[in-house]
Amino acid sequence: MGSDSQGFSGRKGVAMDRVLASMKDEGVFAARAAWSDCLGEQALSADAECLDIPLPSDVVRLKEAGRLRDAARACRAALDRVEVPEVAARLRLELYRLARLGSQYCVPEDEALKQLSKECPNISYADLERLKAAGRIDWRIIEGEVRYLPSVIDGLRAYAAEVPGLAPAVRDQAPRRALRAEMARVGGASRRITVRASMEVTDTTPEETVRIWLPLAVDAAQQRSVEVLDVSPGARISASDAQARTAYWEFAGPGARSITYRYRIDAPYVDLWSTEGIKAARAACESGVAAPLPAPTEDDLAELPPHVRFSPIVDAVARHIRRQALSDDPLEVARAVYLWVTGNVDYRYQPAYLYLDGIVDYALSGLRGDCGVMALVFVTLCRRLGIPARWQSGLYSAPDDIGPHDWALFYTPSIGWAWADCSFGSSSRRMGDEERRRFFFGNLDPWRTVLCQRYQAVFDPVGPGVRIDPCDNQVGEATVGERSVDAGSYVRSVELLGMEELPWEGSAV
After folding, report:
1. What pTM did the predictor assign?
2. What does the H/E/C string look like for 381-415?
3. What percent of the chain has pLDDT over 70?
4. Are residues 256 and 326 in the same domain?
């Protein structure tokens, strides 16, 4: 989750930490009530694997009505009665989520209107209702009050034309167009990038054990020559090809840890929209030049509960896409998936993924999502249609912008593995830039940092409590003692320290 196609990013980790801290300083972030009946039950990250187990109907109704305390009491009562371990895990996780849902949706509607009115003096509650009805604002009722995510104003900047007076959030597209043109001319682009990541845990005592996992660049199809340049003492660094590579520390808190690393990334260019381009991609695949990854495995076609499921809505959308494909050729089927996702799913900021039920079904029913949601939708639909697909995540590391971002890979026998960035494609459609939309079917720019190669990858070592994001790790995780950390008790940052342009050598291998 992270970047929109216009380049603004950091939505899942860096910006959230900053916004929450700022709102707390301004007195807007209301302190979470003492949920003694919930917080006493410590959930585990593994409990998230049981997310697709249904909750008791009274818990669901109370939660959707915004009566979170009553929902927690009903959930606790059900947990006291349950005997099945998986059902207990689901209830335990729900108690954890209920206690913190108000920290996700923490902006009262009147405060959002007040902040928007600084740029849009004529904005009204009726305008907010219109924007909610259009799906531009994510909202919830929390204990009788309509609340928004702290990213509400940034999210609306993507649709500034619908909010008169609001300044759009844009990045200079000229260097991005120039980069794509250069890649098309010479066959690709390479960079050597230096990144620094840090995390500080503040809400702890000197006697408590603090654990921090900071993400680190991994050896991947397009990424190599990873060097650790500087790291806080005591780090345990996982294998270079780990599915979610980390530097791990364990110490008596409070405290901060950081790591600085450098890597090379190669972004090959393919043109999958012209006959000649497809012929060239096929020739490269047959010659072995374009083979950045091994052959696909069964996992690349499989479900991955609780989010990657071949549900009724996935089946229905997949059948619809199959009918739209120009032929049964796997490349044409993958193209049809990309065109459908980028043509129908609009970008909208999300709460932390821990608070979403069935991410792919959620996106297909509402046609809204961020980069991680869209990548997962693309992967799921491809797999359902027999196209091997994988997910990757990390950072969008552009010269003027760095923050969390997700994308996907897909495989066809004719061209091998290729990339797809559906959120950049979706916003290209919104911007009316078809060239850019086409580019991100088959290609990525070299402004990337690959950190994770499998959704819901387990850390080494595994920690107690629930991760901030059990699905991913782009800006860091921490625990204190045997408990998870909550918003306001930590600060995370990621910085782009350097970028060197390298000559293109003709392969991503």
Report:
1. 0.93
2. HHHHCCCCEEEEEEEEEECCEEEEEEEEEEEECCC
3. 90
4. no
